[in-house]
Amino acid sequence: MLWLNGQLIEEDSARIDPRDRGLLLGDGVFETMLVRQGHIAFFEPHLLRLANAAHQLAIPLPFSTQGLGHACEDLLKASELDKVDRASLRLTLTRGPAPRGLALPDDPRPTVMITAAALGSPPASQRLIIGTARRNSFSPSARIKALPYLDNILAKEEARARDADDAILLDSQGYLACTTIASIFLWQKERLLTPSLKGPILPGITRAAIIELALALKIEVAEEEIAPSELTHADGLFLTNSLIGAVPVSQLEGWDMAIHPLTARLSAAYEALLLATER
Amino acid sequence: MLWLNGQLIEEDSARIDPRDRGLLLGDGVFETMLVRQGHIAFFEPHLLRLANAAHQLAIPLPFSTQGLGHACEDLLKASELDKVDRASLRLTLTRGPAPRGLALPDDPRPTVMITAAALGSPPASQRLIIGTARRNSFSPSARIKALPYLDNILAKEEARARDADDAILLDSQGYLACTTIASIFLWQKERLLTPSLKGPILPGITRAAIIELALALKIEVAEEEIAPSELTHADGLFLTNSLIGAVPVSQLEGWDMAIHPLTARLSAAYEALLLATER
Fold first, then answer.
1. Rounded CA gap, B22 and B200, in Å?
2. Considering CB atoms only, which of A94, A100, A154 is closest to B88?
């Protein structure tokens, strides 16, 4: 089952219009959310980020946050994913079908689609390479969760070909940005470093939560430009996103990385935060 | 009418699978072709470029060039666009529907779609701005005609908001790349300059034809890195793509630009080439 423009429908009979600009031009945005036993983690921050992205792209969002919340709940129930330990929800918003050309249509008819899938446990650790592609520091869409993921797909494939799980992407200036699906954090002794939001990265919702939890634990946190040479000096790395939480990096470019003890502590604090917000 | 995975079908009943990676991740490529009275201009170079792009992305192309040629002809006939003066064809190839995640599916089921539309006359001239976004010099997809066009859409909208037709995009290093839909050429007296294919630009089919025609006319042509300051010293600018041919730039950032007499000569030579290949 999926939810499409207000209706629950079987995936095999759901129809996307071949003129949809999401398909033809990558003209849209999305959010991916973690669901645990029917509870959607950080639903409001996700919807806020989606609404901000839609506003930046001038795509009308034709449903309220409350309406989309009910839609997600209906879909989880209909898919029998409201009782499972872990599931994922993806909410996609496109500018919808329109005549050919790049110009924005006068009367946009946006497409809103929600899909759900069962989700396994997050990986215990990740092996990374440094990818050859870079995030575009001069792209207005590099800071929003936009549909174009082709460069990330290619970097993920580069990682697989080199026997790794994911690739670190640098930005146009050569500073660390993120991986193909996650925010990145470095330990310098007991100090936590992560790329600044001034760079071409997503304002990660788990990233923000981890920073808040670290500060509450009196851990020093710096958001700044990070040169790739800092990776080799780091006392540990970990990745965050909504579906994996916080996962340590065990290997970088084939070299073993130490797993910093504070990563597990932050990960436990994040897990406790998720549990607390479920009650 | 459109042609989808081997079948001619009404647009309103054609169905794209909501799991299509073209829609969800921008995972695909396309070609846009000019049709004049049923003749597709440069069909083979377009199909060769598509096949090269598909190969780079490891997307199988499930139809032969000949098969796709017949499909285009069938669609033009069924749409009654085989007799009109000008029409456009768009051939889209995506990696097709697949489970969630960036990893390439083991058994890709690519989507191939061809759409056709009537086309008006090309514009007599274009007014340009220099856009704020830049093409990504470090992107493996910047040199192929991939689905992600969101940054181009935003730059086109920036141009519209500033009362222009299109925006010039620089590359990551600040050199000229292209506009949102066209290759760019500069005149320095009777010498022709255009950004090198080493930069993050498409290998334009009209661009290549114009270079060949210029050389045949004994015009000196240089493909190189071009600083934006060269724009203000240029003795004329013009744009090329498959649908517009060669169109002069009449205004840049609100300033009137001289139209170089050799632009019309090249445009006429290009028109003659199109006519010759139709016979």
1. 22
2. A100
Q: Report which of B21, B20, B2, B22 is spatially closest to residue B11, judged by C-alpha positions.
A: B2
Tell me the per-residue pLDDT of A239-253, one tens digit each, with 9 for 90 and over: 999 999 999 999 999
Span B126-278 CATH architecture = Alpha-Beta Barrel (3.20)
CA distance A212 to A218: 10
Nearest residue of chain A to residue B96 (CA atoms):
A23
Q: What is the pLDDT of residue B278?
A: 82
pLDDT at B277: 87
pTM above 0.90, yes or no: yes
- Mean per-residue pLDDT over chain A, rounded: 97
Q: Pick from B223, B171, B215: which is nearest to B194 by CA?
A: B223
List the Cα angle A190/A196/A201 in 5-degree steps.
Answer: 120
CA dihedral B58, B91, B64, A160 (to 10 degrees): 10
What residues of chain B, 187 to 246, have a C-beta less than 8 Å from chain A?
A: none
Tens digits of residue pLDDT in B16-61: 999 999 999 999 999 999 999 999 999 999 999 999 999 999 999 9
Measure B245 CA to nearest chain A CA, in Å.
Answer: 16
> How many C-beta atoms lie closer than 10 Å to residue B243's C-beta?
20
Determine the Cα–Cα distance for residues B222 and B189; give it in Å rounded to an integer.
Answer: 13
Residue B273 phi, psi dihedral angles, 5° rounding: -65, -45
Chain B's closest residue to A91, CA to CA, is: B24
B100 vs A: CB within 8 A: yes
The C-alpha of A53 sits at a distance from chain B's nearest C-alpha, in angstroms, of 12
Q: Closest Cα of chain A to B142: distance in Å? A: 9
Contact A14 B14 (CB under 8 A): no
Q: What is the CATH number of domain B2-118?
A: 3.30.470.10
The answer on pLDDT for A25 being more than 80 is: yes
Do A225 and A196 contact (CB within 8 A), yes or no?
Answer: yes
Give the orientation angle of helix A261-278 with respect to helix A205-216, to 10 degrees: 110
Which residue among B88, B100, B103 places its CB closest to the CB of A160? B103
Does B103 lie at the interface with A, CB-CB under 8 angstroms?
Answer: yes
Question: A277 falls in which pLDDT band (50, 70, 90)?
Answer: confident
Question: CA B161 to CA B92: how far, in whole Å?
Answer: 29
Q: Nearest-CA neighbor of A88 among A64, A122, A63, A54?
A: A122
ipTM here = 0.97
Task: For chain A, give every domain's residue range.
Answer: 2-118, 126-278
> What tens digit of pLDDT does each residue of B56-111 get?
999 999 999 999 999 999 999 999 999 999 999 999 999 999 999 999 999 999 99
First to last CA, chain A: 27
B172 touches chain A (CB under 8 A): yes
Q: B279 pLDDT exceeds 80?
A: no
